[in-house]
Amino acid sequence: MKFRRKSARDDVGGAADPTDEVAAAEPTEETAADEPPTGPFDADDLPEDEVQRVDLGSLLIPPDPGRELRVQVDERSGAVQSVVLAGQDGAIEVRAFAAPRNGDLWSEVRPQIAADMAQKGGTATEREGRFGPELLCQMQVQRKGGGTATQPSRIVGINGPRWLLRATFFGRPATEPDQAGEWEDALTRIAVRRGEQAMRVGEPLPVTLPEQARRVSPPTP
């Protein structure tokens, strides 16, 4: 997987026996065993799927054909601020945060994100998605060449054991959420490593670059 570094600036039918219906609805042990586990995963509970994930400290990202792994780095401190999977039709930015052992941090954070969007002149509409409640957002942004444009995004939050994984979709997976299955599948293969250190709730989990990462700046779009 190639890395890119980016500066952070920013039934109709007869009657049936009801017991037959129950038997048909309930999967057998053999069927359940055949179904692969789905994530996002905790790093301590990774399945034996033989996937070689890129170790970024708190995030373990699997290679994804057709998408490029980029890291967003603060030029002054050198700290990695976020991780992005980018493709031809969109991108996902993923960030992990410390969370309570037993709790629903995403339910607490979601209205805060919506309020922040509104304060900045944008909108955030809640909808039910594959991972539960999510936000469809619209925000006015400044173009590099001058003027403004509306940037759509879709924000998903997934609670894990002592962590929250937040994913922000841009491009087509944001504007056409019902057609974003492949992008969402990529999210389910990610793992989060919380670590044992004490951290404040909501504090970003540290992300580190592997030695083999190519620290180059992407071309200006």
Descriptive report:
Strands 1-5-6-7-11-10-9-8 form an 8-stranded mixed beta sheet. It has a 4-stranded mixed beta sheet with strand order 2-12-4-3, with no helix packed on it. It has helices at residues 18-25, 29-34, 105-119, 172-175, 181-188, and strands at residues 3-7, 41-42, 54-55, 59-61, 68-73, 80-86, 90-98, 123-129, 132-142, 148-160, 163-171, 191-192. It has one domain (3-11, 29-192): Protein Transport Mog1p, Chain A, CATH 3.40.1000. The chain has 221 residues and is an alpha+beta fold. Helix content is 19%, strand content 34%. A hairpin with a 5-residue loop joins strand 9 (132-142) and strand 10. It contains 5 helices and 12 strands.
Main attributes of the structure:
221 residues, alpha+beta, 8-stranded mixed β-sheet, 4-stranded mixed β-sheet, 5 helices, Protein Transport Mog1p, Chain A, globular, disordered C terminus
